[in-house]
Amino acid sequence: MSRADAPILSVRDLKTYFFPDEGIVKAVDGASFDLLPRTTLGIVGESGCGKSVTARSILRIVERPGRIVGGAILLQQNGSQVDLAQLDPESREMRQIRGGDIGLVFQEPMTSFSPVHTVGNQIIETIRLHHPVSKQEARERAIAAFRSVGIPKPERRIDEFAFELSGGLRQRAMIATALSCGPRILIADEPTTALDVTTQAQILDLLRSLQEREGMTIILITHNLGVVAEMCETVVVMYLGRVVEEGPADAIFHNAQHPYTQALLRSIPSIHSTARAELPTIAGSIPHPYNRPAGCPFHPRCPDFMPGTCDKAEPRLTVVGDGQAVSCFLYDRT
Amino acid sequence: MGSPVRLLEVNGLKKFFPIRRGIMRRVVGHVRAVDDVSFFVEKGECLSLVGESGCGKTTTSRCVLRAIPPTAGQILFRPEDGSVVDIATLSKGELRPLRRQMQMIFQDPFSSLNPRRTLLDIVAEPLVANKIGSRREQLDRVAELLKLVGLRPEYMRRYPHAFSGGQRQRIGIARALALNPSLVVADEPVSALDVSVQAQILNLMLRLQDQLGLTYLFVAHDLSVVKHVSDRVAVMYVGRIVEMAPTAPLFATPKHPYTEALMSAVPKPDPRLRAQRIVLEGEVADPANPPSGCYFHPRCRYAVEACRTETPRLVEIQPAHFVSCHRAAELSLKGIVE
Fold it and tell me: Is B267 within 8 Å of B282 (Cβ atoms)?
């Protein structure tokens, strides 16, 4: 990973709000990060932090009543730059990018496949949407994609329905579908959350070897800090729609600066920690999206809360180290 | 505590579910969900059942509560009067007074609470069902329970939707404690919660255990959580216990290859520890059609010929450390380095 590498995707001050009848939910409220080619970027956070909505915004599949209200999503394409936030989600161009340039793997492989079509037909459909090939050729490509993700007997498995596959195989089939059109970027939204640990290890291994083989860039969205530590070069930590800290994985896990990141890391019962010792906790719980606190959204739970500062204005991302930036008034001295 | 008392002792527990096929719904086979499982839980301790989906940990815990009837085996429970009863064979009527002493904490705090009933209704329900106390006394008891689990008693007229996942899990715990149970079965009590809330609930459960002298049978798949709360751990694979030991030796020096693989598969929250993980080939065996010999042999990297043909027995390899593996004595497996 050389510093000279230009980002393949840059998200700039992305704002995605939802407008249900009851009010406004600022699901993503000013997220910015860069994705460097051939690396894995982890977006980590608890429920409601906006990590999945960020992914859906990039692919322009945010469901109503949500929409992107501000910011830019800049994708590098053959030397030129497209702002995905400006495209019509239904446009031809966006359809080519979605599934073509950027593949997506969902969390729940059971619900993301149609139960009434074979997995093969679904992947063949994807291939033919993006490439002008015959059904037979698409089928062969689909079988090759199945083989490349390590599904045994792919020529037979392809004619099975999603419910006939085990969780691990379903997730492999999902990854095969996402990869079938040779995307440059793969967005994996909680790809292993529904899986057992030994299956999770298999899928993480698969993602890593695919990345080495295809030179793919991965955005990995997860709540599991262990998965992030194992997989990612760069980490973005989100809380209530905002990026609170980002930086190289080693800096995030060993030199976290934001009080939320620090508290989150302390609160996980590590497999290395002392048994039955009282775990440090974060006070309170994640606020309901309608009751988003003013100022820094973390201030009601923050141990370093500064009255008159944190509850008045929102902090900006401030660079604190090599590639590490924090959004907190402890560092934002302006 | 003097010599430890076995609050619960399970011997040779089996639970088979029939597989029916065809128009006559003939039984064509059995899913051996729990296949000859034996363990005990001492008063005041926490035993965890850990394993991957389909290993039979939840079925075991449900049999212990007689939520489902076991196919075979003994479930010996020691009620408060000091006698020993076999829960597996009791009739519904005989079981009823014992139910107060065994309660359950559920996994999903969203679906386990009735959305149309207030906290008061939910937490007082076990009291009402068992006709304990006057309405006034029940009210006081609910207030006391809510305080115990860290909720404000003023909330008791509210409905579950007003509470976050962590708070709902506290409500579930308050309900489980309403009848002063001695045994609490907790099935994945924190797996649906966010990390920052998970720690709060684990702390609460440990505090309540000390405060009320509770005995936990803890069912979980997350090894870090299990390591944190348990005194002893039983690792299950395809309906059987493959290893059972006090927590520290189990994690430091596992004796079963499956335990070793399970531990190595857990992603550690430290990029400097990106380990050379043991990635198991293939998938968990089908409990309807398990392999011959040791169920783990098709995925085991230490398997020898005997593993294919002979079923290993659970033996005590070191004091209190049980393992079911032909090669347990000769292998030196990697645990978690402190």
Answer: no
Examine the predicted complex and report whether its ipTM is higher than 0.85: no
DSSP A248-301: EHHHHHHS--SHHHHHHHHHS--TTSPTTPPPP--SS-PPPGGGPPSSSTTGGG
pLDDT at A196: 84
What's the burial of A187, exposed, middle or buried (CB within 10 Å: 0-12/13-18/19+)?
buried
Residue of A nearest to B274 (CA): A230
Type of residue found at A144: A
Q: Does B288 touch chain A (CB under 8 A)?
A: no
CA distance B193 to chain A (A): 9
Phi, psi of B118 (to 5 degrees): -75, 165
Length of chain A: 334
pLDDT band at B275 (very low <50, low <70, confident <90, very high): low
Give the predicted TM-score (pTM) of the model.
0.87
**Tokens 């008392």 sit on residue:** B5
pLDDT in tens, B36-53: 999 999 999 999 999 988
pLDDT at res. A290: 81
| Contact with chain B for residue A313, Cβ under 8 A | no
CB atoms under 10 Å from CB of A98, counted, come to: 21
Other C-beta atoms closer than 10 Å to the C-beta of A153 total: 9
**Dihedral, CA of residue A245, residue A246, residue A250 and residue A252, to nearest 10:** 10
Whether residue B10 contacts residue B64, with contact meaning beta carbons closer than 8 Å, is answered with yes
- Residue B274 contacts A, CB cutoff 8 Å: yes
